Amino acid sequence: MTLNSIDIPKQLARMKQMLEEDKSPSDSFRIMVEIMVLIIELLLNQRTLNSKNSSKPPSTDGVTGNNKKKSSGRKPGGQPGRQGSTLKRSNEPDDIKTLNVNRQTLPKGTTYWQVGTENRQVVDIVFQRHITEYQAEILQDEQGNRYVVLTTMQN
Hints:
Blueprint: E1 2-3, E2 6-7, H1 8-21, H2 27-48, E3 138-140, E4 146-148
Antiparallel strand pairs: 1-2, 3-4
Helix pairs in contact: 1-2
């Protein structure tokens, strides 16, 4: 990783090599420098982690300039000349619910009459659970032996 055109891992390796070769610094100074190198390496490793090289989620990567969507110059939505499509209305809906206007909320002193309806269809996909319980008859003879019908049950 470089920071302001400085190759940090290369400089750390150079500092470690100089510390090993030079015998004049005291032991306490050597320990302090080694601790500082360790802290720099830890911070460097932490800074270079992202969702691609670690288990961090992508939301912790931060905003980068590379991910910006380039503008095409067009307005959003369907462009002129585009043929749209939608679901076709069903001529035989499974259920029809009539929604009446609450006449108590209308202004008083005026007569109202129905002039038509506004129809909208909502398509719902319904999954129903179907449970079959099999009850097998149990017979018992005079000696106390029990008998149960054993059949293959259909799934």
